[in-house]
Amino acid sequence: MQKRKGFSSWTPFFFLSSLLFLAFLISSTSIPSTSATSSVIDPDPNPNKAYEDDDEKEYNDFCYAQSVIRDMPEKIDKESCKKTREIDFHDDDMHVLFMIFIVILYGAVVRSIIRYFHSDIPYTVIVMASGMGMGLISKYFCYELYTYTAIARTHPKIILFTFLPILLFESSFSISGHVFMKAAGQVLLLAAPGMLFCTFLTAFVCFTFFTEYKWTFLESLFFGCIISATDPVAVVSILKELGVSETLGVLIDGESLLNDGVAILLYEVLKDLILAIELGHVHTTWELVGHITQEFFQIAVGGPVFGWVMAKIAIFCLCRIFNDAVVEITLTLVATYLTYYIGETVFHVSGVMAVVILGITMSSEKTCISPETEHEVHEFWGMLGHLANTVLFFITGVIIMERGTRNLDWNDLYYLILLYCSLNVVRFLMLLIMSPILTRIGYGMPWQNMIVMMWGGLRGAVGICLSLEVYEHIDFCQKKLGPKILLQTAGIVLLTLCVNGTTTKKLLEVLKLTEISPGRMEEMKNALRTINVAHKKALIMLRHDRFLSDANWTYVAEHTKIDDPYRNKIVADKSMPTQSSIVSIGPEHVLNECPACHTYVPNQPTNEELKLMTEEARLRVIKAMKISFWAHFERGVLTEEAVQILAGTAETISDRVLYMIHARDLKKYWTIRGIFPWLRECVLNHGGGRELEQGEVIPPKPKRLWKQRIWWLATRSWFENLMTFLVILNMIPAIVQLIVENNYPICDPGYIIYFYVLTAINQGFSFIYVLEFLIKIIGRGCSDYWNSKWNILDFIVLAFTLFDAVIVATVGCADSSVNSAPGALNFFKIFRIVRIFRGLKLLKNLIPAILRGINGRINTQLFLGYDVALGYICACDDVLKFLPHMIDNKRVLHKIRSSVEKERLEAVREMGILQKNHPGIAIAVKTRHASRSVLNHMKSTLNELRVDGLLDEKENDLLTVVLEERMKRLWNCPSYIAPPAPEVLLANLNWLYGHEELRDHIFKNATFLQFEVNDVIASVGDAPQGIYVIVSGMIRIDYEPSMEAVEDRAAYGVIPVMEIFKDFEFDRKTTDYCSSGMVIGESSCLTGRQRAASVICETEGVSAYHIPASVMQEALETFTDHFNSLEERLWRACGMRRAANYLTTLSSYHNMPKEKLEMLLERSCVPIGPDFDTIKIPPYVQEVVVIEGMVKNEETGEIYIAPAVIPKICTKITMPINPKTMNRVLVFLQEDQMPDEYDDDRLAQCLIAAKKQRRPSIPDEKLTEQEMPAESVSTSKQKQRRMSVAVNFGVRQKGRKSSEGTMMRRSSIYTAGSTGGSVQNTRVLRKNVRRKSTVDESLEDK
């Protein structure tokens, strides 16, 4: 067995090694001819052989070749191209391409070896060392391999342009946006001032000690900026392999990603300055300062700005794509390369910084990528980054050996060792000097992190490429600046990777930075405990399988058991004794021996330990909440904005010690704020919007006949539209006259004709306005006319117009002083301007559109707030289910649970108030959630059909496109949907569907009630008072446990009569808030027991339908069909709610979406009657849940007390005698199973009958007046507005006409309580409608 195990583990290694050997064997059969890649001028067909013993000749020929390229490009064709054949270039190109794939294959072999032997040597170090070996062989031992390493002689910019964008984006895209933003101050401090400090100190060391090179200080500074920049490629790859804390990783990663921008800035500035001095183009001081400033803003500032703009463009495009992995991956890839290329070549900014900002911005807004394709996008970039890392570090190794070691002497080695030590010291001094600032901003800087950052300043491919660019620059050949820079850079890269890189993990272990945190240890322990429980259950269940019963279960148990991966790891806090560590003090049963009396007492943590445990638990809870947020987003329940808000809040709160997420931290998102509420109030109060919002009030018809005709005309809508049209026509001559009078005197002879014509036209319109005024005054009455602000504006303009007409008719142009006096001219122009103010009346028709726009923005904000609150509540529910598995210590568990429950209740309360004030918002959110849940279920069904082979790929793709198109349409779902009529909630009771007689009976006897705030609907100890169906408002349910209730539940399975099912031990005080759709009193009508929880109105305007207990009792005695009784329907409704809450606490249903579980429970029944005293469980049953009382396993005699799930190995149960309550079980089918309709089994017939009770997926039919409850007939006839002007926004959405206004009159009716303890002195507010007279009714009266 051990032999086979070893062979199977080595199989990938042997396979990859065989492929690698075969590839080299094939490559050795085709020996290249001449090489045209080493030098463009060299006539020697074998350059390596010629240069083997003469490095000086090689260097001189290289400089000569560069001078030829610069001065005599026409000579290249004559001396080089004529000596080579065209096929040589093609062979070399194929060799390069072939070598790339060989390197990738070799990387796979190395990765397999590292994972098998658990090597501590980083992957990149091995790959670079392999490249060095390849370069050594190709240069000195096997000249045939020289063409295969030609990629290492590619221009350095091509290498950077090819590989660097991939590695930069892959690294920045995986950085946590929150952590990076908080540590941004530290990162920028290290990347900018820190980089300058290291550059100058390194330059000082080189200028002082590198005397043989004869570098000037400017040239030393030039080398310092190249060698001081840490390489993101090297650092990121090392960090990912070794694993460090997220904050330390972001600090090192962020610094190495950003300081390249500063390095490139210094590189470009110093290169231009050196060349200017060499060529004699000396700049003045101010020209030099201006040039440096321009370069700084262009590279350091322009790069991030350009990257942010490209990120926003990419996000905009990605947001328009839905579940198309190919397109989304393509967009990210194209955006990365375009950002780097355009930034470097077009705008001449830092492409490195642009790509980094691109990745960080897209990471912070990663919801732009579809949830179902996000994993594929990250996997693609992870794979691409691995391939680029492999090839780039292999190329780096080849470059070091082939080109970096030329002209190497003992002085160079001495300088290299000195430089290596100096770089580490300089970096440590930089961190030490900046530590006072670094420790006070961001996440701080412990001394351990400072040492790791000093030692982790690795150099890599970026420095190599920059030094290669200097090496190949023609102006740096004569002074040998390029060769020495390349040699020293290559040596530093080699030393930092081989020394620092290989010892970084050991350094982390010495500094105790890789130790497993107590939280992770406890998580692992809890996970193993859960897995072991599942392991035991699986063994027990499968042993009873007929096919597997004869398996070797000892072997199965032996080879399926897993050990703790952390058993040999070190706990982070080693100073804490083992018996008092955070891991061991979790269980309360741990005992310690008292040193005084030598008795064992329960272990109790100290305050400091308790604080540490609470903090660890808090972080785990917040992490679980974040996972819940993203899970709901992936299912389409949360919008992109909502999940970003929730996840961002969780990340921010996680940085605050001992602080949980509170509802007040999110309250600002569902609170109306900003400029739009202010604009709305301005329009309503000062723009006549309130009059339009309330609708036109038709004045009463006068008694006199002649006034009735004028009243009829004044109240016509077409009359108002006609006057608006005339105002538009009047604006034309009024504006023309105003413009002309600005250019000509009023009584100018050339203008006099136009003056009288325009004046006559305006006076004609004035006459029409006078008629309008008289018609409205006479027809509508003075009080009605003056109540409108628009009529007041019309009257003011009319008064000025008439005064203008009187002056013109009186004075005209007879008085010559009109033209000579400027005051008279201005006096005339004032009246012309006032005429134009009549055009403001046109805004009256725009006010509704303006209000709709403002209300739409407010509704969108409230929609987002409701979505945020709902996502937070769902996350709290998920966390509360798993808290016992996450926290062992009872004190910490109680503290965390109390905090989460308190904040959940506060969020539920806030959401209930929001739903009460803005019901249309809640309806819109629920509608979108329901739509997406239905589409998710349809898509999962489609996937099951494809997996089962019942659907071909083509048809599956077509249907998938259709479903995803429907999902995409939900992005544009309305933010406001008018709530349904109250009677619809009563009609939607699932125990009424499919039974017309029962439905008519309930509707006939239902009463519509309204309550005030703090009114008590039901109290603890009340006898059954019937059923309440909450229509609007919010109620509070308070449960106070009693000793009797707890004991009866534990002994007899008596579930307390209440509507809260969270803690199924029912031994804790519980409070919850509920709103519309909640049903109160079902279980009390079924069991006849007194209530265990009170129901209190939390808000004003709570309305409900009440079905009295006498009506329900009559219905229970009347509708007693064996398989379709009202009792069975009610038990099924109660059982589904109880089972839905209880099953989610079981491990087998943890990850099942709530919607899918509810769909499974729809296929259920509650068998009632003597025929079901014994139930045989058939194989098509999914689960049997005990929802009340207890049942007995007939085979083993085991008793299952509610709530409980019958084990699958149990095939027959009986109902024992229960003195406290009745025994009830809920039986539901497997997802794709259904009993035969002709099956004689009573349980099968019960399930088939329950199927007919299920509601089909069609919209609810509108109820007729005869079908409506008696109390709601008069209410339904009212054309009520669904939203109050003062509170509810967005009532008139997109052309939706408002109904006639109604006035409500409340009357208080106090009902006497019955002997059973009914609600005493409950104020019932009934609606009485006083209709306003309408035009149609008036005409009919006439």
Features:
1342 residues, alpha+beta, four-stranded antiparallel β-sheet, 49 helices, 22 strands
* Structural class computed from helices and strand pairing: alpha+beta
Helix share of residues? Answer: 55-70%
Number of helices: 49
Spatial order of strands in the largest sheet? 3-10-5-8
Radius of gyration: 42 Å
Strand content is 5-15%
What is the number of E strands? 22
User: pLDDT average, as an integer?
Assistant: 78
State the shape.
Answer: flat
Terminal Cα span:
104 Å
How many strands, which pairing sense, and closed or not: the largest β-sheet?
4 strands, antiparallel
Extract low-pLDDT stretches. Answer: 1-16, 18-55, 73-89, 573-589, 815-823, 1256-1342
Pfam family, one: Ion_trans
Subcellular location: Cell membrane
Protein name: Cyclic nucleotide-binding domain-containing protein
Region (Disordered): 33-54, 1254-1342
